[in-house]
Amino acid sequence: MIRRITLLFLALLAAPAVLAQSWPKGPVRVVVPWPPGGGTDNVARLVTQKMAGSLPQPIIIDNKPGAGGNIGIEFASRAPADGYTFVVSTAGAAINHTLTKNLPFNILKDFEPVVLLAVNQGVLVVNPALPVASVKEFIAHAKANAGKLTYGSNGNGSATHLWAELFEMKAGVDLMHVPYKGAAPALTDLLGGRIDAMFADMAAVLPHIRDGKLRALGVGATARFQGLPDVPTISEAGVPGYLARSMTGLLVPTGTPKEAIAAMNAAAVKALGDPDVRQRLTAMAAVPGGDTPESFAKALREEVEQWAAVISTAKIETQ
Fold this sequence. Notes:
It is a single chain. The protein is an alpha/beta fold. The protein folds into 2 domains: 28-119 and 246-314, 3-Layer(aba) Sandwich (D-Maltodextrin-Binding Protein, domain 2), CATH 3.40.190; 121-219, D-Maltodextrin-Binding Protein, domain 2 (3-Layer(aba) Sandwich), CATH 3.40.190. Helices cover 43% and strands 20% of the residues. The protein contains 11 helices and 10 strands. Strands 1, 2, 3, 4, 5, 6, 7, 8, 9 and 10 form a 10-stranded mixed β-sheet that branches. Helix 6 (159-171) crosses helix 11. The longest helix is centred in the C-terminal third of the chain and has 22 residues, at 293-314.
Protein backbone atom coordinates (compact mmCIF):
# COMPACT_ATOMS: atom_id res chain seq x y z
CA MET A 1 0.00 0.00 0.00
CA ILE A 2 2.81 2.40 0.94
CA ARG A 3 4.61 1.54 -2.31
CA ARG A 4 1.45 2.30 -4.32
CA ILE A 5 1.03 5.70 -2.65
CA THR A 6 4.69 6.49 -3.26
CA LEU A 7 4.41 5.65 -6.96
CA LEU A 8 1.27 7.77 -7.26
CA PHE A 9 3.04 10.70 -5.58
CA LEU A 10 6.01 10.38 -7.95
CA ALA A 11 3.65 10.25 -10.94
CA LEU A 12 1.96 13.47 -9.83
CA LEU A 13 5.33 15.17 -9.49
CA ALA A 14 6.33 14.08 -12.98
CA ALA A 15 3.06 15.19 -14.63
CA PRO A 16 3.98 18.89 -15.10
CA ALA A 17 7.32 17.93 -16.64
CA VAL A 18 5.63 15.53 -19.07
CA LEU A 19 3.09 18.22 -19.97
CA ALA A 20 5.83 20.79 -20.59
CA GLN A 21 7.67 18.36 -22.83
CA SER A 22 4.59 17.79 -25.01
CA TRP A 23 5.03 21.20 -26.69
CA PRO A 24 6.41 22.00 -29.15
CA LYS A 25 6.67 18.87 -31.26
CA GLY A 26 7.43 20.83 -34.44
CA PRO A 27 8.62 24.25 -35.67
CA VAL A 28 6.89 27.32 -34.22
CA ARG A 29 5.86 30.05 -36.67
CA VAL A 30 5.98 33.73 -35.70
CA VAL A 31 4.10 35.90 -38.21
CA VAL A 32 5.57 39.38 -38.64
CA PRO A 33 2.97 41.59 -40.39
CA TRP A 34 5.66 43.91 -41.73
CA PRO A 35 8.39 43.57 -44.39
CA PRO A 36 11.79 42.01 -43.70
CA GLY A 37 14.49 44.43 -42.59
CA GLY A 38 12.22 46.92 -40.84
CA GLY A 39 12.30 47.82 -37.16
CA THR A 40 9.59 45.36 -36.10
CA ASP A 41 11.15 42.55 -38.11
CA ASN A 42 14.59 43.25 -36.64
CA VAL A 43 13.27 43.15 -33.07
CA ALA A 44 11.31 39.95 -33.72
CA ARG A 45 14.28 38.18 -35.31
CA LEU A 46 16.71 39.24 -32.60
CA VAL A 47 14.54 38.08 -29.71
CA THR A 48 13.12 34.89 -31.29
CA GLN A 49 16.59 33.77 -32.36
CA LYS A 50 17.63 33.89 -28.71
CA MET A 51 14.34 32.31 -27.60
CA ALA A 52 14.93 29.33 -29.87
CA GLY A 53 17.82 28.28 -27.64
CA SER A 54 15.32 27.55 -24.85
CA LEU A 55 13.01 25.41 -27.00
CA PRO A 56 13.48 21.95 -28.53
CA GLN A 57 12.11 23.08 -31.89
CA PRO A 58 13.06 26.03 -34.17
CA ILE A 59 11.17 29.33 -34.43
CA ILE A 60 10.49 30.41 -38.00
CA ILE A 61 9.77 34.03 -38.93
CA ASP A 62 7.01 34.39 -41.55
CA ASN A 63 6.70 37.92 -42.98
CA LYS A 64 3.19 38.78 -44.19
CA PRO A 65 3.13 42.57 -44.72
CA GLY A 66 0.36 44.80 -45.97
CA ALA A 67 -2.62 46.95 -44.97
CA GLY A 68 -0.88 48.50 -41.98
CA GLY A 69 -0.23 45.11 -40.43
CA ASN A 70 -3.79 43.86 -40.83
CA ILE A 71 -2.96 41.16 -43.42
CA GLY A 72 -0.53 39.33 -41.17
CA ILE A 73 -2.74 39.65 -38.10
CA GLU A 74 -5.79 38.39 -40.00
CA PHE A 75 -3.76 35.42 -41.24
CA ALA A 76 -2.78 34.58 -37.67
CA SER A 77 -6.36 34.98 -36.46
CA ARG A 78 -7.42 32.20 -38.86
CA ALA A 79 -4.63 29.84 -37.82
CA PRO A 80 -5.41 26.85 -35.58
CA ALA A 81 -5.12 27.66 -31.87
CA ASP A 82 -2.63 24.84 -31.40
CA GLY A 83 0.40 26.78 -30.17
CA TYR A 84 2.31 26.71 -33.44
CA THR A 85 1.36 30.13 -34.83
CA PHE A 86 2.15 33.39 -33.04
CA VAL A 87 1.99 36.94 -34.40
CA VAL A 88 3.87 40.15 -33.64
CA SER A 89 1.71 43.16 -32.80
CA THR A 90 2.68 46.85 -32.80
CA ALA A 91 0.93 50.17 -32.17
CA GLY A 92 -0.86 49.74 -35.50
CA ALA A 93 -2.86 46.84 -34.07
CA ALA A 94 -4.11 48.95 -31.16
CA ILE A 95 -4.93 51.88 -33.45
CA ASN A 96 -6.58 49.86 -36.22
CA HIS A 97 -8.91 48.24 -33.70
CA THR A 98 -10.84 51.54 -33.72
CA LEU A 99 -9.64 53.29 -36.88
CA THR A 100 -10.23 50.53 -39.45
CA LYS A 101 -13.87 49.67 -39.95
CA ASN A 102 -15.10 46.10 -40.45
CA LEU A 103 -11.87 44.37 -39.50
CA PRO A 104 -12.24 40.58 -39.86
CA PHE A 105 -10.66 40.10 -36.42
CA ASN A 106 -10.78 41.63 -32.96
CA ILE A 107 -7.34 42.17 -31.46
CA LEU A 108 -8.70 41.92 -27.90
CA LYS A 109 -11.04 38.93 -28.35
CA ASP A 110 -9.40 36.81 -31.05
CA PHE A 111 -5.93 36.84 -29.49
CA GLU A 112 -4.27 36.22 -26.16
CA PRO A 113 -1.18 38.24 -25.22
CA VAL A 114 1.99 36.22 -24.63
CA VAL A 115 4.73 38.72 -23.88
CA LEU A 116 5.88 42.28 -24.51
CA LEU A 117 9.09 42.10 -26.54
CA ALA A 118 10.10 45.76 -26.71
CA VAL A 119 8.80 49.32 -26.63
CA ASN A 120 9.63 51.89 -29.28
CA GLN A 121 9.20 55.40 -27.94
CA GLY A 122 7.90 58.46 -29.66
CA VAL A 123 10.05 61.57 -29.43
CA LEU A 124 9.20 65.20 -30.17
CA VAL A 125 11.89 66.55 -32.51
CA VAL A 126 12.15 69.92 -34.20
CA ASN A 127 14.29 71.44 -36.89
CA PRO A 128 17.10 73.34 -35.11
CA ALA A 129 16.00 76.52 -36.90
CA LEU A 130 12.83 76.58 -34.78
CA PRO A 131 13.52 78.94 -31.84
CA VAL A 132 12.60 76.50 -29.07
CA ALA A 133 14.77 74.39 -26.79
CA SER A 134 12.22 72.67 -24.53
CA VAL A 135 8.71 71.28 -24.48
CA LYS A 136 7.46 74.33 -22.59
CA GLU A 137 9.00 76.67 -25.16
CA PHE A 138 7.47 74.57 -27.96
CA ILE A 139 4.03 74.87 -26.36
CA ALA A 140 4.43 78.63 -25.90
CA HIS A 141 5.58 79.03 -29.51
CA ALA A 142 2.66 76.92 -30.73
CA LYS A 143 0.15 79.01 -28.79
CA ALA A 144 1.66 82.21 -30.12
CA ASN A 145 1.37 80.83 -33.65
CA ALA A 146 -1.90 78.90 -33.38
CA GLY A 147 -2.57 76.68 -36.38
CA LYS A 148 0.68 77.70 -38.09
CA LEU A 149 3.31 75.44 -36.53
CA THR A 150 3.61 72.40 -38.80
CA TYR A 151 4.34 68.79 -37.96
CA GLY A 152 4.78 65.82 -40.26
CA SER A 153 3.53 62.28 -39.77
CA ASN A 154 3.89 58.89 -41.42
CA GLY A 155 0.35 59.29 -42.72
CA ASN A 156 -3.21 59.97 -41.63
CA GLY A 157 -4.10 57.65 -38.78
CA SER A 158 -0.53 56.49 -38.23
CA ALA A 159 0.99 56.22 -34.77
CA THR A 160 3.03 59.38 -35.37
CA HIS A 161 -0.17 61.24 -36.28
CA LEU A 162 -1.99 60.07 -33.15
CA TRP A 163 0.99 60.90 -30.95
CA ALA A 164 0.73 64.50 -32.16
CA GLU A 165 -3.06 64.60 -31.74
CA LEU A 166 -2.67 63.38 -28.16
CA PHE A 167 -0.08 66.10 -27.52
CA GLU A 168 -2.41 68.77 -28.89
CA MET A 169 -5.20 67.62 -26.60
CA LYS A 170 -3.09 67.43 -23.45
CA ALA A 171 -1.02 70.57 -24.11
CA GLY A 172 -3.92 72.66 -25.40
CA VAL A 173 -2.25 73.66 -28.67
CA ASP A 174 -3.34 73.79 -32.30
CA LEU A 175 -0.78 72.43 -34.77
CA MET A 176 -0.97 72.00 -38.55
CA HIS A 177 -0.80 68.36 -39.64
CA VAL A 178 1.15 67.52 -42.80
CA PRO A 179 0.67 63.79 -43.58
CA TYR A 180 3.24 61.94 -45.69
CA LYS A 181 3.36 58.49 -47.26
CA GLY A 182 5.75 57.08 -44.71
CA ALA A 183 8.48 58.21 -42.35
CA ALA A 184 11.22 58.80 -44.93
CA PRO A 185 9.62 61.69 -46.86
CA ALA A 186 8.41 63.31 -43.62
CA LEU A 187 11.89 63.13 -42.17
CA THR A 188 13.42 64.54 -45.35
CA ASP A 189 11.20 67.61 -45.15
CA LEU A 190 11.86 68.03 -41.42
CA LEU A 191 15.61 67.95 -42.00
CA GLY A 192 15.17 70.40 -44.86
CA GLY A 193 13.16 72.83 -42.76
CA ARG A 194 9.98 72.51 -44.83
CA ILE A 195 8.08 71.43 -41.70
CA ASP A 196 8.78 72.47 -38.12
CA ALA A 197 8.40 69.34 -36.01
CA MET A 198 7.58 65.67 -35.82
CA PHE A 199 6.45 63.23 -33.18
CA ALA A 200 8.67 60.50 -34.55
CA ASP A 201 9.65 56.96 -33.78
CA MET A 202 12.90 57.14 -31.84
CA ALA A 203 14.68 54.64 -34.09
CA ALA A 204 14.02 56.76 -37.19
CA VAL A 205 15.49 59.98 -35.81
CA LEU A 206 18.09 58.98 -33.21
CA PRO A 207 21.08 59.29 -35.59
CA HIS A 208 19.95 62.80 -36.62
CA ILE A 209 19.52 63.82 -32.98
CA ARG A 210 23.01 62.66 -32.15
CA ASP A 211 24.63 64.51 -35.04
CA GLY A 212 22.73 67.73 -34.27
CA LYS A 213 20.55 67.80 -37.37
CA LEU A 214 17.42 67.54 -35.22
CA ARG A 215 16.70 68.79 -31.70
CA ALA A 216 14.94 66.40 -29.31
CA LEU A 217 12.63 68.14 -26.86
CA GLY A 218 10.98 65.25 -25.07
CA VAL A 219 10.41 61.49 -25.07
CA GLY A 220 6.92 60.02 -25.05
CA ALA A 221 7.57 57.41 -22.37
CA THR A 222 7.23 56.94 -18.64
CA ALA A 223 11.01 57.09 -18.17
CA ARG A 224 13.91 58.69 -20.00
CA PHE A 225 15.49 56.73 -22.82
CA GLN A 226 18.85 55.23 -21.87
CA GLY A 227 20.32 56.33 -25.19
CA LEU A 228 19.36 60.00 -24.57
CA PRO A 229 19.61 60.44 -20.81
CA ASP A 230 19.60 64.26 -20.99
CA VAL A 231 16.27 64.44 -22.84
CA PRO A 232 13.31 64.54 -20.42
CA THR A 233 10.05 62.73 -20.91
CA ILE A 234 7.30 64.93 -22.32
CA SER A 235 5.30 64.20 -19.18
CA GLU A 236 7.98 65.55 -16.83
CA ALA A 237 8.70 68.43 -19.19
CA GLY A 238 5.26 69.98 -18.92
CA VAL A 239 2.54 67.64 -20.29
CA PRO A 240 1.63 65.31 -17.39
CA GLY A 241 0.37 61.88 -18.36
CA TYR A 242 1.53 62.09 -21.98
CA LEU A 243 2.45 58.67 -23.36
CA ALA A 244 3.44 57.93 -26.96
CA ARG A 245 4.88 54.51 -27.65
CA SER A 246 4.66 51.48 -29.88
CA MET A 247 4.59 48.16 -28.08
CA THR A 248 6.03 45.22 -30.00
CA GLY A 249 4.66 42.01 -28.52
CA LEU A 250 3.68 38.43 -29.20
CA LEU A 251 0.04 37.37 -29.50
CA VAL A 252 -1.48 33.95 -30.11
CA PRO A 253 -4.98 32.90 -31.28
CA THR A 254 -7.46 32.65 -28.43
CA GLY A 255 -7.81 29.12 -27.12
CA THR A 256 -4.15 28.22 -27.53
CA PRO A 257 -2.97 25.74 -24.88
CA LYS A 258 -1.69 27.50 -21.76
CA GLU A 259 1.46 25.39 -21.79
CA ALA A 260 2.47 26.88 -25.15
CA ILE A 261 1.83 30.42 -23.93
CA ALA A 262 3.76 29.80 -20.72
CA ALA A 263 6.70 28.21 -22.53
CA MET A 264 6.96 31.01 -25.10
CA ASN A 265 6.67 33.62 -22.37
CA ALA A 266 9.42 31.97 -20.35
CA ALA A 267 11.68 31.71 -23.40
CA ALA A 268 11.10 35.37 -24.26
CA VAL A 269 11.68 36.63 -20.72
CA LYS A 270 14.93 34.65 -20.59
CA ALA A 271 16.02 36.01 -23.97
CA LEU A 272 15.17 39.59 -22.99
CA GLY A 273 17.26 39.22 -19.86
CA ASP A 274 20.35 38.44 -21.90
CA PRO A 275 22.80 41.40 -21.74
CA ASP A 276 23.68 41.14 -25.44
CA VAL A 277 20.01 41.16 -26.50
CA ARG A 278 19.29 44.14 -24.25
CA GLN A 279 22.29 46.04 -25.60
CA ARG A 280 21.30 45.37 -29.21
CA LEU A 281 17.70 46.42 -28.56
CA THR A 282 18.89 49.65 -26.97
CA ALA A 283 21.07 50.26 -30.04
CA MET A 284 17.85 49.93 -32.10
CA ALA A 285 16.34 52.65 -29.86
CA ALA A 286 14.01 50.06 -28.30
CA VAL A 287 13.41 49.41 -24.62
CA PRO A 288 13.51 45.66 -23.78
CA GLY A 289 10.23 44.18 -22.58
CA GLY A 290 9.44 41.01 -20.66
CA ASP A 291 7.03 40.33 -17.78
CA THR A 292 3.86 38.22 -17.74
CA PRO A 293 1.07 37.64 -20.29
CA GLU A 294 -1.30 39.36 -17.85
CA SER A 295 0.88 42.47 -17.71
CA PHE A 296 1.02 42.71 -21.50
CA ALA A 297 -2.75 42.12 -21.74
CA LYS A 298 -3.38 45.06 -19.41
CA ALA A 299 -1.03 47.34 -21.37
CA LEU A 300 -2.63 46.35 -24.68
CA ARG A 301 -6.14 47.10 -23.41
CA GLU A 302 -5.00 50.49 -22.15
CA GLU A 303 -3.36 51.22 -25.51
CA VAL A 304 -6.54 50.36 -27.42
CA GLU A 305 -8.63 52.54 -25.09
CA GLN A 306 -6.23 55.49 -25.32
CA TRP A 307 -6.16 55.56 -29.11
CA ALA A 308 -9.91 54.96 -29.37
CA ALA A 309 -10.44 58.12 -27.32
CA VAL A 310 -7.98 60.14 -29.44
CA ILE A 311 -9.51 58.92 -32.71
CA SER A 312 -13.01 59.78 -31.49
CA THR A 313 -12.10 63.21 -30.10
CA ALA A 314 -10.02 64.25 -33.10
CA LYS A 315 -12.54 62.69 -35.53
CA ILE A 316 -9.80 60.85 -37.41
CA GLU A 317 -10.83 58.72 -40.36
CA THR A 318 -8.83 56.67 -42.84
CA GLN A 319 -8.72 58.07 -46.35
